[in-house]
Amino acid sequence: EDKQRTDAFEARIDAGDFIEAKDWMPDHYRKTLVRQISQHAHSEIVGMLPEGNWITRAPTLKRKAILLAKVQDEGGHGLYLYSAAETLGTSRDQMLDALHTGKAKYSSIFNYPTLTWADIGVIGWLVDGAAIMNQVPLCRCSYAPYARAMIRICREESFHQRQGYESLLVMMQTGTAEQKAMVQDAVNRWWWPSLMMFGPEDKDSPNSEQSMRWGIKRISNDDLRQKFVDATIPQAEVLGVTVPDPDLKWNAETEHYQFGRIDWAEFWRVVGGDGPCNRERLAARVKAWDDGAWVREAALAHAKKQATRAQA
Ligand code: FAQ
């Protein structure tokens, strides 16, 4: 019977149908989605930390208001994504427990420090830029609740990317020599980690083949990374910065930029928990959870009281 159901499911996927929460799906499809969506949600929530670090030090009221709104959006993205994952039968408590005990991953990029104000602009430009490149195809993910969440998220990410690029343009066009150097230094530190956001090369990506077949991922890690480099280098030229890659060159035949070798040892070290800020990020999330215990207890006590009253 399962074989029949699986065949029917595969046929729907091949026909370009979207799968809804109550539809039958293979266990492995469900597991893959819970893994990817929950890790995506964790990335949004952990991703608030590097930028949150600069809210109190933003240089003007305008920049502070923008940054506050951006970080708040990220909290919202995390919540839509946790909700999308919950439709697959997992609970928020289970997902958070997996994050807090180090079992669930979140994007490697958020384990790097934000050393100067220019990092905030560069995160918008490069990190949100990479996020959009990866997330626009997810708006067509075969699992409909995830696809729907991604539509709204992508609209907001696009504002995030632009605010970052605009703040860098201001620094590069009207800033002091010191401010310009600060932007270049931030680009030097964030360039390679941004390319790593797309995940391992296709040949080393254990989940890609099945996820592509099921329409969970629509474009491969390497293809998205290439699209990102092709889109970003002209933007770097307008900005007046260079990327720290001596091997970068335009290939007129393929009409793509060729880029140098990514340090995969660094990538796996950071994914494995040993990046510059992994411990600090996880400790901040665990502390926030522990500090919020009284709120959860109060909410439960209130709900119980309401229920008893409704019965009486
Ligand atoms: N970091 O077989 P694959 C944002 C893991 S954007 C850490 O290729 P898959 C917005 C991968 O999980 C960032 N781990 O895996 C924002 C797997 O391990 P597992 C979040 C990584 O799933 C901006 C193993 O390596 N975006 O937050 C990374 O097919 C600014 C093998 O890899 C998303 O999550 C990595 N970079 O492809 C917020 C998008 N790459 O799970 C604040 C949705 C790979 O088997 C400020 N996710 N791994 O133990 C995806 O598109 C996919 O999951 C990929 C990975 C492409 C990330």
Automatic annotation (TrEMBL):
It comes from the Bacteria. InterPro entries: Aromatic_CoA_ox/epox, Ferritin-like, Ferritin-like_SF, PaaA, PaaA_PaaC. Coiled coil: none annotated. PANTHER family: 1,2-PHENYLACETYL-COA EPOXIDASE, SUBUNIT A (PTHR30458:SF2), PHENYLACETIC ACID DEGRADATION PROTEIN PAA (PTHR30458). NCBIfam families: PA_CoA_Oxy1. This is 1,2-phenylacetyl-CoA epoxidase subunit PaaA. It comes from Roseateles aquae. The gene is paaA.
